């Protein structure tokens, strides 16, 4: 499976002194990102929003990608269309995909306030965009003559688009076509999918896009921010509308990983319980540790974050790495065995096959990936104890097999000991205090003199 980079964080253009230049800045990073092991970028919303210093989650003109003088300037917070298209071309040259953040639930920045005749309420719903694409009025929003009752939840105080209005539906389909066929994106991340019907996501995902004479099947993932089974229900419904299978961010897993990192004496047996997307639907799970919203809302993981990254980069699912963690918090740690770069190397070379839990108690969690095709599998250990190395003998699928540590981190970063299973597949695998270790099978006899813990 590939690894995705969320290539932004909240107000990143301002904080990096790259306002209006983010697309160019990201382009400069591409070669190093490819070399590190990233296969795809998730970019922030590309359309002109209610202001040119907006992150784009309050869209105003879907078809202005930074080329019309409106809402305080010409460029968006991130740049213009030509710079965006250059970023995507350069990514494609490196065989990397690029995903667009689709905000189709709500709008902001209307030009006029008007009365909705259905309920007599005054709302900012008159939009006169300079692109002259998708001008709209009250009937494009809820309540509308096409649908009086809102399909999903409301978001802040923004007017919510009524997708059952043919004008709105056509505009969203034209926007999606532009994103894939003209601008060059390879997939979609849909924002706040709780706010509208799954049929709309399914319809956009299953459309037969073409670019340069070739059919394009976009990767599609929805943001359904809940810590319960509603995400699974949404996946069931949305995929009934589309032959192109749609994924979801695994928020239930993310909540468990945050608790693991930030809660003293967290019971690691919780990681074995049902209720996470990756356990039931690994092919539909995008796993992550933090994102722009958790960072902006002050609920980001605060402690021992590498334990969480080790989990998502060794288990099944499509892992997403957060720019702020990778660059600004310096968790990439290139050239070491203790960071995200080492874990991505493990992910690509070894993390294939089923996930099988070999041991779980309150303080120790051990699993194996069984291997698939060119990925031979691995053994992964999490240690929740804060003051000592911990391990236990487990029975693996490998008999008389030598294992070496390929990635590890914790409150002690000494080199873990090599392991060799016996004729029954048994060996003791250990990890550092409040840390992890990943062991991978290799050929050859054990090296003498390896340190033990």
Topology (elements, then pairings):
Blueprint: E1 4-6, H1 12-15, H2 22-36, E2 40-42, E3 48-49, E4 59-61, H3 81-93, E5 97-102, E6 112-115, E7 122-126, H4 166-183, E8 187-190, H5 198-206, E9 209-211, E10 214-216, E11 219-222, H6 230-240, E12 247-249, H7 251-262, H8 277-280, E13 285-288, H9 292-296, H10 305-314, E14 318-322, H11 323-328, H12 340-349, E15 355-361, E16 364-369, E17 378-383, E18 390-395, E19 402-409, E20 419-420, E21 426-431, E22 435-442
Parallel strand pairs: 1-2, 1-14, 2-5, 5-8, 8-11, 11-12, 12-13, 13-14
Antiparallel strand pairs: 3-4, 6-7, 9-10, 15-16, 16-17, 17-22, 18-21, 19-20, 19-22
Description:
It is a single chain. The protein has 453 residues and is of the alpha/beta class. The protein folds into two domains: 4-249, Glycosidases (TIM Barrel), CATH 3.20.20; 355-442, Sandwich (Immunoglobulin-like), CATH 2.60.40. The protein contains twelve helices and 22 strands. The strands form six sheets. The chain has an eight-stranded parallel beta barrel, surrounded by four helices. Helix 6 links the parallel strand 11 and strand 12 (247-249). Helix 2 (22-36) runs parallel beside helix 3 and helix 10 runs parallel beside helix 12.
Condensed summary:
The chain is α/β, with parallel strands linked by helices.
Keywords:
single chain; alpha/beta; TIM Barrel; Immunoglobulin-like; eight-stranded parallel β-barrel; six-stranded antiparallel beta sheet; 22 strands; 26% helix
């Amino acid at each position: 499976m590939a690894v995705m980079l969320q290539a932004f964080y909240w107000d990143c253009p301002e904080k990096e002194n790259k306002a209006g230049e983010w697309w160019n800045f990201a382009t400069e990073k591409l070669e190093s990102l490819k070399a590190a092991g990233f296969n795809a970028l998730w970019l922030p919303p590309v359309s002109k929003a209610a202001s040119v210093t907006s992150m784009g989650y309050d869209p105003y003109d879907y078809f202005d990608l930074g080329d019309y003088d409106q809402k305080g300037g010409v460029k968006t917070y991130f740049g213009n269309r030509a710079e965006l298209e250059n970023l995507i071309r350069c990514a494609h040259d490196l065989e990397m995909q690029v995903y667009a953040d689709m905000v189709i639930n709500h709008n902001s920045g209307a030009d006029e306030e008007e009365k909705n005749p259905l309920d007599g309420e005054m709302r900012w719903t008159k939009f006169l965009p300079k692109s002259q694409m998708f001008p709209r009025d009250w009937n494009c929003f809820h309540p509308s003559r096409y649908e009086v009752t809102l399909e999903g939840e409301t978001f802040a105080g923004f007017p919510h688009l009524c997708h059952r209005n043919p004008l709105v539906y056509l505009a969203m389909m034209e926007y999606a076509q532009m994103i894939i066929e003209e601008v060059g994106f390879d997939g979609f991340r849909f924002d706040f999918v709780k706010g509208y019907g799954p049929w709309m996501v399914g319809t956009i995902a299953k459309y037969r896009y073409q670019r340069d004479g070739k059919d394009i099947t976009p990767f599609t993932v929805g943001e359904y921010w809940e810590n319960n089974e509603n995400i699974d229900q949404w996946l069931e419904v949305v995929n009934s509308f589309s032959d192109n299978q749609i994924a979801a961010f695994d928020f239930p897993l993310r909540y468990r990983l945050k608790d693991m990192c930030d809660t003293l004496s967290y019971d690691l047996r919780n990681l074995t319980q049902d209720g996470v997307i990756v356990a039931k639907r690994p092919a539909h799970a995008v796993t992550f540790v933090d994102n722009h919203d958790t960072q902006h809302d002050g609920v980001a993981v605060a402690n021992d974050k590498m334990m969480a990254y080790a989990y998502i980069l060794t288990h099944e699912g499509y892992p997403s790495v957060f720019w702020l963690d990778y660059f600004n918090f310096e968790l990439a740690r290139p050239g070491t065995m203790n960071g995200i770069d080492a874990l991505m190397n493990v992910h690509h070379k070894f993390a294939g096959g089923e996930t099988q839990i070999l041991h779980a108690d309150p303080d120790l969690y051990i699993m194996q990936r069984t291997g698939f095709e060119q990925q031979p599998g691995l053994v992964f250990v999490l240690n929740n104890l804060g003051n000592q190395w911990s391990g236990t003998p487990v029975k693996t699928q490998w008999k008389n097999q030598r294992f070496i540590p390929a990635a590890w981190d914790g409150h002690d970063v000494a080199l873990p000991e090599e392991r060799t299973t016996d004729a029954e597949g048994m060996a003791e695998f250990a990890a550092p205090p409040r840390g992890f270790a990943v062991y991978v099978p290799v050929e050859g006899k054990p090296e003498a003199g390896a340190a033990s813990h």
